[in-house]
Amino acid sequence: MSEKKTKRRDFLFTATYAVGVVGVGATVWPMIDQMNPDASVKALASTEVDVSAVNPGKTITVLWRGKPVFIRRRTQDEIAEARSVKLDDLKHPETDEDRAKNPEWLVMLGVCTHLGCVPLDQKGDYNGWFCPCHGSHYDTSGRIRKGPAPTNMEIPKYEFVDANTIKIG
Amino acid sequence: MSDHEYIPKSKVGKWFNDRLPLLTLANHLTDYPTPKNLNYWWTFGGILTFCLITQIVTGLVLAMHYIAHADMAFDSVEHIMRDVNYGWLIRYIHANGASMFFLAVYIHIFRSLFYGSYKSPREIIWIIGIIIYLLMMAAAFMGYVLPWGQMSFWGATVITNLFSAIPLVGEGIVTWLWGGYSVDNPTLTRFFTLHYLIPFLILGLVVLHIWALHVPGNNNPVGIDIKKPSKDTVPFHPYIVIKDGFALLMFMIVFAFFVFYTPNILGHADNYIEADPLVTPAHIVPEWYLLPFYAILRSVPDKLLGVVAMLSAILILAALPWLDTSKVRSAVFRPLYRQFYWILVADVLILGYVGAMPAEGLYLLIARVATAYYFLHFLVILPVLGLKEKTVPVPLSITEPILGGSPNLATAKNKESLNN
Hints:
The complex is a heterodimer of chains A (169) and B (420).
Chain A: H1 3-33, H2 39-42, E1 47-50, E2 58-64, E3 67-73, H3 76-84, H4 96-99, E4 105-109, E5 120-121, E6 129-131, E7 136-138, E8 144-146, E9 158-162, E10 165-168
Antiparallel strand pairs in A: 1-10, 2-3, 3-4, 5-6, 6-7, 7-8, 9-10
Chain B: H1 11-19, H2 22-31, E1 33-35, H3 44-63, H4 73-82, H5 87-115, H6 123-145, H7 150-161, H8 170-178, H9 185-214, E2 233-235, H10 236-261, H11 291-299, H12 303-315, H13 320-323, H14 335-355, H15 361-388, H16 400-403, H17 409-419
Antiparallel strand pairs in B: 1-2
Helix pairs in contact in B: 3-5, 3-9, 3-10, 4-5, 5-10, 6-7, 6-9, 11-12, 11-14, 11-15, 14-15
């Protein structure tokens, strides 16, 4: 067998495999990608919430993109408690100033960052939230303090349209 | 396949068999030489086949009435329960059938552990079995989501979120699994599709499981290789067929008890509340058959490591044929392994119990100790025990201890090496 002939064959095989892999990949990708959020799910409009009826110390829960969003009007004690915590004591260090631009209003996804349960309001060792599923404790700023959750509860994109209306998303 | 050439008696039979040897296969299954000392722990293969067929048949019927849509799924299940003729019966058989399936599979697995059925030359049978077990868990989980009750919804949320523990791509995978930003209608429809598919995958794997079994033949309580066919074996039909049939009847009595007298005892009351994405039930627990693994997940205080520990607890079983270094199969001849075996059984039961309890205080401590012991058993005790343990001499054949005769030469040779 001459060496030249073998090399030619090798090239043809490799080229065929390469085209084959690209072809299979191009065929399989639509099958995989169809499972990603579709256009109608992505198009879900942002939510506007009227918060005029929420008194200090109350939380309302609204649904946004299928997930609960907590909107809490915090008391002065809670704000003071959240702002006095040293960053070194936090598992996921974030200042309360960054999490609540307007200190009175805490707007965050009401989804435990462990496995996605909805934590309970005004419970737990830090007077914030407590997740009943696997025992994660959050403080009055929604920051993880104790338990298996790895990060603080997420702050979604939101803005005050006017004094009484919050637009989420 | 058959040990001897089979020729059908009738002309038509021969004509057909020459073209498609189905009759040869039937003859192989009928004559299949089976160890004559098999006890009732060996009847669960047949019982499991019955469970699979039951789930497929009742599932097909339920699918004729069920509607896989987030707005209608819950109501359609209630429609099945109240309006459809015998719908209550079919659904209760299907729901309790899942529990019966797992009950039988756990007995089947622990029988293998006791008698060393996973050891050479049966590793492939064992590994196929583990894959079937994994698929069973996937099917059971997705099936539990379909009624779209509170436990369905939050169980789905918690389990799919396990994937978010994967670094970098985790969140993307979870969104992909959901088809959205939370468990919702797209999740329900794909779970229904996969729940429908998996039983047929299991059916295919069961065929491979049995095929692989028929190559070396059954292990037996003595755990020695036997000559087939010989005085140590009986043909599958009628001996094993009748015995399996009797065991199946006993099993069906237990099954019927649950279906007719306490159809909801294994379920959770919260699943009769329709799914609500705003409220998580106070106490989320999976179905009983997943509790030991749930306890392992919760016993680790780190998200990623907890998921890794839970998956490892199942996948470690696939490595068992190589982790267990003992050449003696049956625990009957392994006095130390026998004790560790029962400790493992207790350990798994304890894990199951604490998995159902809140993850705090003493329960958490027990879960951690039991989790550590679980891995210790497979990773340390089994490899070391196989090298250190002084085993009891194994008999030369199944009949030898009683009749004192008919030794199998190959076994006799093997025995010499074992007793050294």
